[in-house]
Specification:
heterodimer, A: alpha/beta, Rossmann fold, 2 domains, seven-stranded mixed sheet, four-stranded antiparallel sheet, 21% strand, B: mainly alpha, 12 helices
């Protein structure tokens, strides 16, 4: 069943993050696996791969992310949907540690990102169309350098494995800058899988792939999620893909989570034929969706 | 420590890959310093021939040029390694990894050591073989001279990186003139005493001035104040700490404002 997020119902709580901070007895252990207790209903469960709580990001007067809370469980692929400017990439950047939240907490596999950045990020990886690997290095060189940064054990073997997995063996000694955009995307995905992350962030991972390759990539990531304890956060504007891949979706609009639910069931629950129709409505008239949900 | 070295070594390896495949990156490592040594080598020969002084210009001026170029190369070793990340828009990939700022700076320093040693070896070979410069005249103090210049070169390099990180890729043009900007105060070719009093005060804040004063002291009087050189070393270390802190501060600002995530050619102002 879809539900309107408490952040909308309750309105903003500017000091909620401070309350959380004060009421949390233990943030995490050196091994980043200690469970902790959080007071509000959006507190993630201790077994979550990713727990985001009351995340805010303020740029001057502009509130880009407004009290976002969610979690990603092991084996789960969570879709983060929303129109341009909704706050998806801002949220992802905060989870990646390259953007400091104004308030809120991010816990990755039990490691509080603000306190144990290294441990948290060593369990994370990402691929995004706007972050290609350096074009002046070959595919193998890039994988080796990033493998060392992520302290990947048995690195040479792991590189061979991801090269094969993403059909990049023949491009091993090709500079990334001369690859097609689809091939570069596969290289970025290979780098993202290099450290076998617990949390995988994929920002439009199939945007520049042809349908056949995109299907293979989706299958690879679904298989990876099913086989390992990974949690995947996936953004895409391709609603067919989202419905096919994601176990659950969150709709973001103007920095807030408006809706959450099963991408296959959500449209009919809210009176829409397809996920794309629902997306368009959320993008154009977010209040309509909210009222429809409340009526339902 | 192992993790620090592994991640710093990753950046060194990246620099090695770039150099290996690119003559355009290799040639500047020794071409400009070689030209400098040849130019100043002939100038010092000429000065020796036209002056009837007992003073030998080769160790005083050619040695000074060599040491100054070494410092500039150390600085450029840091900044060019950093600019590779700017040009390839690699900050998001790097700083979304477990890499810390200190490890990143450590990697830049390792890259700079490798590239500046190539320049130093070229200069030493040319200066000794072609122009007969003997480093024995500086004695054991040569190691201290190189250390101070190395530390200060690293500091300047980190300062340049902080400028570019803060003000964007266009600020690259602030970096290249930095050595020329401070060279009058470094007293590379003349003693500190020829400067006006107010400039002497400023020069005493520049660690290389202690090196070049020391070098001339050794050549002219066969003696130099170790305390003065120790002060210069301490000053260089202080600059290194301050510049590393400045870079960290700029990095934190960039993370707070989102510049790291959005860093590209014209997005930073």
């Amino acid at each position: 069943m879809a539900r309107v997020r408490p952040a909308i119902e309750a309105g903003r709580k500017p000091l909620a993050w401070a309350e959380n901070l004060l009421m949390r007895p233990v943030l995490d252990s050196p091994g980043c696996h200690t469970d902790f207790w959080m007071p509000h209903d959006t507190a993630p469960t201790s077994g979550s791969i990713l727990s985001v709580s009351q995340l805010h990001k303020l740029y001057g007067e502009t509130l880009a992310v407004d009290g976002v809370s969610f979690s990603v469980e092991p084996h789960e692929i969570l879709g983060l949907l929303g129109p341009n400017g909704a706050g998806k990439t801002t949220t992802i950047n905060m989870i990646l540690g390259v953007l400091q939240p104004t308030s809120g907490s991010i816990v990755i596999d039990g490691c509080d990102l603000a306190l144990r950045r290294r441990q948290a990020l060593s369990r994370t990886n990402f691929a995004a169309v706007y972050a290609p690997l350096p074009g002046n290095l070959t595919v193998a060189q890039n994988l080796r350098v990033f493998g060392m940064l992520y302290a990947v054990p048995a690195l040479s073997r792991r590189i061979e494995s991801v090269l094969a997995e993403f059909d990049l063996v023949r491009f091993r000694n090709t500079k990334c800058g001369v690859l097609s955009s689809g091939e570069q995307t596969r290289v970025a995905l290979a780098k993202a899988m290099l450290n076998q992350p617990r949390l995988l962030l994929l920002d439009e991972p199939t945007a520049s792939l042809d349908p056949a390759i995109a299907r293979e990539i989706r299958a690879t990531i679904r298989e990876f999620a099913a086989r390992t304890q990974v949690g995947v956060l996936w953004t895409s504007h391709n609603m067919i893909e989202v419905a096919e891949v994601c176990h659950r979706v969150l709709f973001l609009s103007r920095g807030r989570i408006l809706l959450e639910g099963d991408p296959r069931a959500l449209p009919s629950q809210l009176g829409h034929k397809t996920l794309e129709d629902l997306f368009v409505t959320v993008a154009r008239e977010p209040l309509t969706v909210r009222h429809a949900e409340e009526d339902a | 420590m192992t993790a620090f070295l592994r991640r710093a070594a990753a950046l060194l390896l990246r620099q090695f890959y770039l150099l290996r495949g690119s003559p355009a990156r290799i040639v500047p490592l020794f071409a400009w310093v070689a030209i400098d040594i040849v130019l100043w080598g002939f100038i010092t020969r000429y000065l020796n021939s036209v002056s009837n002084a007992r003073f030998n210009f080769v160790p005083a001026m050619l040695g000074a040029v060599l040491l100054w170029d070494f410092m500039s190369r150390v600085m450029q070793g840091i900044t060019t390694a950093f600019l590779e990340d700017v040009w390839s828009r690699n900050f998001l990939n790097l700083f979304a990894s477990p890499l810390s700022v200190s490890e990143y700076l450590g990697g830049l320093v390792l890259s700079s050591i490798a590239t500046s040693l190539i320049g130093l070896a070229t200069m030493v070979a040319l200066a000794t073989v072609v122009f007969g410069l003997s480093f024995l005249v500086y004695g054991t103090l040569l190691a201290a001279f190189l250390l101070v210049l190395f530390l200060f070169g690293i500091s300047l390099g980190i300062f340049g990186c902080a400028l570019v990180l803060r003000f964007g890729p266009a600020a690259e043009w602030f970096i290249w003139p930095i050595p020329a900007f401070i060279s009058p105060l470094a007293c590379v070719f003349y003693p500190l005493s020829v400067l006006p009093r107010w400039m002497q005060g400023l020069a005493r804040l520049i660690p290389p001035s202690y090196v070049f004063e020391g070098m001339r002291g050794v050549l002219e009087h066969h003696a130099h104040s170790l305390a003065s050189l120790a002060f210069g070393s301490a000053l260089a270390l202080l600059y290194l700490i301050l510049m590393a802190r400045a870079f960290t501060g700029v990095y934190r600002h960039a993370v707070r404002t989102g510049l790291i995530a959005r860093y590209s050619a014209e997005t930073v102002s």
